[in-house]
Every structure is written in structure tokens, then in C-alpha cells.
Amino acid sequence: MWFLWFMFFSDLLIPTLMAGSGRMMYRHPPKSINGLVGYRTARSMKNPDTWKFAQDYCGRLWWKIGWRMAVPSVLIHLPLYGRSEELVGVVGGILCMVQCAVLIGCIFPTERALKRNFTEDGERKV
Questions:
Q1: Going by C-beta distance under 8 Å and a sequence separation of 6 or more, which residues neighbour residue 6?
Q2: pTM here?
């Protein structure tokens, strides 16, 4: 039974961190371009304008997706109550991998938005 609760809270960790980090990214973005904190890609680190845009866009995306992933994560665990630890582990592991894929997949829409709004040199398109 403890394993079910462990997996339940573990599988809620990624959506909760996405929502919390997303809120921080768009409400209180890192002031300066750095290599440690924030949405960091070559395109987002071109200049302060691209940096701010990327933090805002990705932060809002993470905020929305994080909360939307939390609900199915809870619902997936409900039918697992009273089932074997092996089943709970397999389902929890698959859910965690899907959540990680969604987390990493947020790079693509953010990069597309940067490409739509900025030139290759980091200048804002008109």
C-alpha cells in the first residue's frame, strides 16, 4: 500500500513542478541571461528581448500543461488502489515517462514561437 502512495506522489511531482516553475518563469523571470536558470536555448539567449519572450512563453505553457497533466495523473492512479505493486510500478513508470516527454516536448512550440517572432539575429519581426 505504501508503494501506491509513493508512486502517486512521485507521479504528481512533474506536473506540480511544471506548474510552479512555469508560474515563476512568467511572473518572475531571471533578470539576466544565464546558463543555469530559465528556458535556455541558443535562440532564447540571443538578447534580452528573446530571453524575456522565451521565459514568458514557456512559463505560461508549463503553467497550463502542468495543471492539465495533474488531473489525468490522479485519475490514472484511482483504479490501481488494491492492485499489485508490480502493476502500480509499471503504470506509474509509464506515466512518469509520458510526463517527461511532455515536459521536454514544450521545447518545440516555444522554439516555433521564437522563430515566428524573431529573426535569426534575434531582432523582433514586424
A1: none
A2: 0.88
In the block, which residue shows the cell 522554439?
111
pLDDT along the chain (126 residues), means of 10: 90 95 93 91 94 96 96 92 92 95 96 96 90
Q: Minimal CA–CA distance to 61: which of 10, 113, 100?
A: 113
- Compute the distance between CA of residue 74 and CA of residue 92 in angstroms, rounded to an integer: 11
Q: Report pLDDT for 35.
A: 87
Rg (CA), the chain: 18
Residue with cell 506540480: 16
**Cβ–Cβ under 8 Å, residues 26 and 66:** no
Instruction: Provide the total of helices (H) and of strands (E) in the chain, helices listed first.
Output: 4, 0
DSSP state of 126: -
Compute the distance between CA of residue 34 and CA of residue 109 in angstroms, rounded to an integer: 21
Euclidean distance between CA atoms 50 and 119, whole angstroms: 10
Written as one letter, the residue type at 78 is: L
Tally Cβ neighbours within 10 Å of residue 11. Answer: 23
**CA atoms of 77 and 71, how far apart (whole Å):** 10
